[in-house]
Amino acid sequence: MPQAITRAASIPKLNRFGWLMAVYAENHSRLARLFAPADLAEGRYVSSIGDGLDLYLDVIETHRYTVELRMTYGLRDPQTGEPDPSAFVRLYRDARQVEATHCYVGRRWQDAIGMYPPPAELISHRMRMNTFLGKWLEYLAERGHGVATLRRCESSVLEVATSA
């Protein structure tokens, strides 16, 4: 009886770093569709959909290839007085990627995983933050937030950035 030779399909495997880069690309697509932040001037913007939970988008700095943002609700953490939830986001214009650099004012990556974490732990931490960002952006889109609900605020973005 002849033996059948089975060939495993050659499906490329994505390592954790590659997966993280794919999450960054997805987050770029979501954020660009939602608020088109690459086209916004520095300052504070608010997206209000009438549910009493306004979203604030602070364009902290714009550079040739990057845009620094902060997303938060008008809610404050009762212990720290800081906006919570909040995410600091870096948009890479040329690479078409969006990275959440940290998601809570009091918990930078050094606070969460130490000064010299192993690379795998650092990638896992970034994966969690950026998965959170992706789900938050998806939720905001489902609720009806977007460019049409976004308007410029008079309050200064510096008030928020200096408290961070």
TrEMBL record:
InterPro entries noted in UniProt: DUF1249 (IPR009659)
Pfam families from the UniProt entry: DUF1249 (PF06853)
Identification of the protein by name: DUF1249 domain-containing protein
Native source species: Pseudoxanthomonas gei
